[in-house]
Design goal:
This protein is mainly alpha-helical. It has 15 helices and no strands. The chain folds into two domains: about 5-165, no CATH class; about 175-350, no CATH class.
C-alpha cells in the first residue's frame, strides 16, 4: 500500500499548520476550559468566601492535562475512541512534564501534552478501524504510545521548558527595560497571529515580570486594534477585539501589514513601562497561561489579581495597593487605547493606513 495514500485515508496531515496552529490553538482552548477557568473559580471562591467555587476550581484545574489532549485530538479530527483515550495520555503527559529530570517541579506540562498528544493521536488514527477488535486495539495503541512517550520524554521536555522559561524570566529581572520590550512585542505578535500566545506562555511557565510584560503586549494588540479600528467596526468591533481577540484582524494584516505597526510600537512602549515603572507581575504559577491572554475575557487581569492575592497570602506582599490597580488599568486599557491611535496618525497621513483597512468582515 502506498504510504501517502494510507496517510490521506487516515486523515494524517503532517504539516506545520496542522500541528503548530490547529493543535496549538486547540490546546489553548483546553487550557482555558480547565486550568484557567479553575483559577478564576478558585480566586472568586477565596475572595467571596464561597468554598463551593474553590472546590469546582480545583476539580477544573486538575483536569487540565486531559482537557488539553482531548482538544488537540479534536483539532486533529481524531475518531471517538482515539479522542476519548487521549484523556489518559494528556493526564500522564501533563503530570510527567511538570517534573524535571532532576525530580523537581517544572513548567513543561502543556508543552509535553502538545508533543505527546499529537503523536499518540496520529498513531491511534493509523490503527483506527483497521481490525475487527477496534474497541480494544485503538485505545490500547493510543494509550500505550502516549503514556510510554510521556514516561520517556516528558520529564526532559519539562526540564527544557523550565530552563527556557527560567532564562526569559531571569533576563527580564536582570534587564527589565530591554526584555520588557522583547517579551511584550513577541508575545503580543503571537497573540494576533493564528497561533496561541496563551499556550506559549503556559508551556514556558512565563510568570513574574516576564508575565507582566506578556500581559502588556497582549493588551496593546487587543485594545490597540479595537480602538484604532473603531471608525470601521464601531462597538461590536470594539468588544469583539478588545475582550475577544485581535486575531480577527489577521486577514486585514495580510492585505496591509502596515496596520500592525501601531499596536506593535504600543506594545514596545507599554512593556518596559509595565516592568520598570509599575513592576507588573504575574505571580500565580497556575496562571502562566493568563500571561498570554491579555484582555480576553479579562483573564490577564484576573490572573494578575490572583497573583497579588497569592503574594499577600504567602507574605511576599504586604497588601494590594492603589498603585497596583493604577498600573494594571493603565497598562491593560488606558495606554493601549491612547498610544495606538496616536501612533497611527502619521501612518494615516502618509497613506500607509487608509479608511477601511481594518474593517472586519
Amino acid at each position: 500500500m502506498d504510504f501517502k495514500a494510507f496517510l490521506k485515508r487516515k486523515n494524517i496531515v503532517i504539516s506545520a499548520r496542522r500541528y503548530g496552529i490547529d493543535a496549538l490553538g486547540a490546546m489553548a482552548q483546553g487550557l482555558f476550559a480547565s486550568l484557567l477557568i479553575g483559577t478564576i473559580l478558585n480566586t472568586l471562591g477565596t475572595q467571596l468566601g464561597i468554598p463551593a467555587l474553590s472546590t469546582c476550581g480545583g476539580y477544573a484545574s486538575s483536569m487540565s492535562g486531559a482537557a488539553m489532549a482531548i482538544a488537540i485530538g479534536y483539532a486533529l479530527q481524531a475518531p471517538p475512541l482515539v479522542l476519548f483515550s487521549l484523556a489518559t495520555v494528556g493526564h500522564a503527559a501533563n503530570a510527567l512534564g511538570s517534573t524535571t529530570l532532576s525530580g523537581g517541579s517544572g513548567a513543561g506540562g502543556p508543552l509535553a501534552v502538545l508533543f505527546i498528544a499529537v503523536i499518540a493521536a496520529e498513531f491511534g488514527k493509523a490503527v483506527s478501524k483497521e481490525t475487527k477488535v477496534d474497541i480494544l486495539v485503538t485505545p490500547l495503541v493510543t494509550i500505550l504510545v502516549g503514556v510510554g512517550l510521556a514516561a520517556l520524554i516528558a520529564p526532559a521536555i519539562g526540564t527544557a521548558a523550565s530552563s527556557l522559561g527560567g532564562i526569559i524570566m531571569w533576563a527580564t529581572d536582570l534587564q527589565p527595560f530591554l526584555m520588557g520590550i522583547v517579551v511584550s512585542v513577541v508575545i503580543g505578535i503571537a497573540l494576533t497571529l493564528p497561533i496561541s500566545s496563551a499556550a506559549i506562555c503556559a508551556a514556558l511557565g512565563l510568570t513574574g515580570l516576564a508575565g507582566g510584560a506578556a500581559v502588556a503586549g497582549c493588551c496593546a494588540q487587543m485594545v490597540g486594534f479595537a480602538v484604532m479600528s473603531f471608525k470601521e467596526n464601531k462597538w461590536g468591533g470594539l468588544l469583539s477585539q478588545g475582550i475577544g481577540t485581535s486575531m480577527l484582524q489577521m486577514g486585514n494584516i495580510v492585505k496591509n501589514p502596515r496596520i500592525w505597526i501601531p499596536p506593535i510600537v504600543a506594545s514596545a512602549i507599554t512593556g518596559p513601562i509595565a516592568t520598570c515603572i509599575f513592576h507588573l507581575q504575574m505571580n500565580d504559577p497556575a496562571s502562566a497561561v493568563a500571561s498570554g491572554m491579555g484582555t480576553c475575557g479579562l483573564v490577564g487581569q484576573i490572573g494578575v489579581y490572583a497573583g497579588w492575592v497569592a503574594d499577600v497570602a504567602n507574605g511576599t506582599k504586604a497588601a494590594i495597593t492603589a498603585m497596583d490597580w493604577i498600573g494594571l488599568v493603565l497598562i491593560s486599557f488606558v495606554l493601549p487605547a491612547v498610544l495606538t491611535p496616536l501612533i497611527a496618525i502619521p501612518l494615516r497621513k502618509a497613506g500607509w493606513i487608509k479608511d477601511g483597512d481594518m474593517k472586519l468582515q
